[in-house]
Design goal:
The chain is α/β, with parallel strands linked by helices. It is built from 23 helices and 18 strands. An eight-stranded parallel beta sheet has the order 1-10-7-6-5-4-3-2. Strand 15, helix 18 and strand 16 form a beta-alpha-beta unit.
Length: about 625
């Protein structure tokens, strides 16, 4: 008899958490490394679970891959760590329990942190080590990202005929992170060759049972479930699980009624929980039929029609000018709105509002944008940084922007806190700009990050930031391609001060499907020019530009004249290359941007008149 043969006729009780027990003993480092440094401790935990009634144990290899071990400088020890883990589990199991080699998911919040190819390479390296050891099967667990799990499952299925268990993890009851229902996700895994499919981690018994009520029995595979002990509490900085083991005994019976045949525990569970489950299930046969609860039909409202045509459509059809006018650092918006009205008269398409630029606190761009829209009838483009909000805050913020009708957004990583007014403040960065773009587009499909329906679809158009001031423009262009794949509709660039560089940028991005607004920021003084040249990474001003600004001396009028003239030269160069121009207002000096916007529109008017005249003459 073997693992799958036993599952055909009986329920197998699996072990519980490894990390929870190690953590409870004060160990807070790489658990997989303990296979070598503390083998007796790891073997002892396996033995405790077997003594409690577990007939299936998993190796201490959850994070034994290249990506996770490299965080501890242990990437060169993958073979030794994984090989030793299997030996310890096998020594403990003997003939009393099956040994499943555990391989954990990598992707979590930051889906873009590792490409699928990187994940596959890391998985293969660990897989080949484990398959050369004495294991009874594989356990793929804690995969929030269905794409990742399907990719590694396909690899595992090609490389071995040993049983493969594939467990997903859920943020929300009954639905995967990408919005796929649990029933559909498990069906896909079964079709890809998984012998056992199910759930582990994140949720406790209550929500896992609720999720399984909507899952039919697999046609060919078996069903597994590894719930967490409970929702954890935090005591003196440590996670504490307080679930009662008797509750797990009752839960095991409920899992049986939902068709589960492999039942174990995840975070927060101990040998006491496993013993309670083993005692409750002893002598009971698995069920072969179940009634499936119909999944609730959720009506998702379509997104309302936007008030304005999308900027990325406008700039593809005609000349478009947008202007950054940052909210002030101090209270009072009179000067800001005076400038906004002057810019409105100059014919711009949108005012863009930075999100605490340079990591310095400013009046909320959401508050300013709301007043711009409602009181001044202007189109605000709201910047959103990943720096100041965690994943919870970002989603709340997006729902708030949608509710206010602020649908034009720029997704950016954000300057680190250490360069701003409060260098000791925490930079969050739960998401990268790539992840934020993907999240916003997921909102447009009516789904939160966790896959839970929002009850309606948002209608955001998303701009991505482009930094042209780098050594290798081709690499920067590749980042734009990646952002387009995440859902970016168009791009806004940082300022450029060189005609040659502008031409190089055009050549680097001309193949992209998403348009680009080229950034131009007028200089205000020689001191300003020297700061930009010497202290802003990647930006270098030509000697002629610096000499012109220096010649203006301390004469503010002359400095403005030179700064405007230099900006106009850049606009002239940009005119035949880019339809979109992004004017960056320096220090709330809105009169600079207004004059440049008027120059652009006059230049466009003259061009149109010439073209019309040429047509008339032909």
């Amino acid at each position: 008899m073997g693992f799958l043969d036993d599952l055909q006729n009986q329920i197998l009780v699996a072990d519980g958490a490894m990390g929870t027990l190690l953590y409870s003993h004060g160990i807070d480092r790489c658990f997989e490394e303990l296979n070598r440094s503390s083998p007796d401790q790891i073997r002892g935990i396996h033995e405790a679970y077997i003594k409690a009634g577990a007939r299936v144990i998993q190796t201490n290899t959850y994070g034994g891959n290249h990506i996770k071990l490299s965080r501890y400088g242990l990437e060169d020890d993958i073979r030794k760590i994984n090989s030793q883990a299997v030996k310890l589990a096998r020594q403990a199991a003997g003939s009393q329990a099956y040994v499943l080699a555990t391989m954990g998911g990598v992707r979590a919040f930051k889906k873009s942190s590792h490409t699928l190819e990187e994940l596959k390479r890391s998985f293969r390296e660990q897989l080949y080590v484990l398959l050369n050891e004495d294991i009874d099967g594989l356990l793929l667990e804690t995969f929030y990202d269905l794409e990742e799990l399907k990719a590694v499952l396909e690899i595992a299925r090609k490389e071995t005929n040993k049983p493969v268990t594939a467990n997903v993890s859920l943020h929300e009851t009954g639905v995967l992170q990408d919005g796929t229902s649990l029933a559909d996700g498990l069906k896909q895994l079964e079709e890809l060759g998984a012998d056992v499919v199910g759930l582990n981690c994140r949720l406790g018994p209550y929500h896992m049972l609720e999720s399984l009520e909507e899952v039919p029995l697999p046609k060919h595979a078996f069903l597994s479930v590894y719930p967490n002990g409970s929702l954890p509490s935090v005591e003196e900085g440590r996670l504490i699980y307080e679930s009662d083991e008797n509750y797990f005994g009752d839960s095991a019976l409920a899992f049986r009624s939902q068709g589960a045949r492999l039942i174990g525990g995840c975070c927060g569970t101990t040998p006491k929980h496993v013993k309670a489950m083993a005692d409750a299930l002893r002598g009971l046969d698995p069920i072969s039929e179940k009634s499936v609860k119909a999944r609730k039909t959720i009506i998702v409202q379509e997104s309302p029609e936007p008030e304005y045509p999308p900027l990325h459509k406008i700039v593809q059809e005609r000349r478009s000018v947008i202007v950054e006018l940052d909210p002030p650092k101090t209270l009072g918006l009179e000067k800001f709105f005076t400038g906004a009205e002057q810019l409105k008269k100059s014919g711009i398409d949108s005012i863009t509002l930075a999100d605490n630029s340079l990591a310095s606190p400013r009046i909320s761009n959401t508050a300013v944008g709301t007043q711009l829209k409602e009181k001044h009838h202007m189109r605000p483009l709201i910047h959103i940084t990943c720096r100041d909000r965690n994943l919870i805050g970002l989603q709340s913020h997006l729902m708030g922007l949608h509710t206010l009708g602020l649908t034009d957004v720029l997704a950016i990583t954000g300057d680190p806190s250490k360069i701003g007014d409060f260098p000791g403040a925490t930079s969050v960065y739960d998401l990268s700009s790539f992840d934020l773009i993907s999240l916003i587009k997921q909102f447009n499909e009516g789904l939160s990050y966790s896959g839970k329906p929002l009850g309606g679809k948002t209608n955001f158009t998303v701009a991505g930031a482009f930094n042209p001031n780098v050594r290798h423009l081709n690499k920067a262009a590749e980042r734009l391609e990646k952002k387009i794949a995440c859902g970016a509709d168009y791009f806004i660039s940082q300022p450029i001060y060189s005609v040659k560089q502008m031409e190089e940028v055009h050549d680097a991005v001309r193949h992209l499907s998403a348009p680009l607004y080229i950034g131009i920021m007028p200089l205000t003084s020689s001191r300003n020019a020297e700061f930009i040249h010497h202290e802003i990474p990647g930006i270098k001003l030509s000697d002629s530009i610096r000499e012109k600004m220096a010649a203006a001396g301390n004469d503010a009028v002359q400095a403005k004249k030179e700064g405007i003239a230099i900006a106009k030269e850049l606009i002239d160069a940009a005119f035949d290359l880019f339809n979109g121009i992004y004017l960056i207002t320096p220090f709330l000096k809105f009169e600079y941007s207004a004059e440049l916007a008027e120059y652009i529109h006059e230049k466009e008017k003259l061009r149109s008149e010439r073209e019309f005249s040429n047509v008339q003459h032909t």
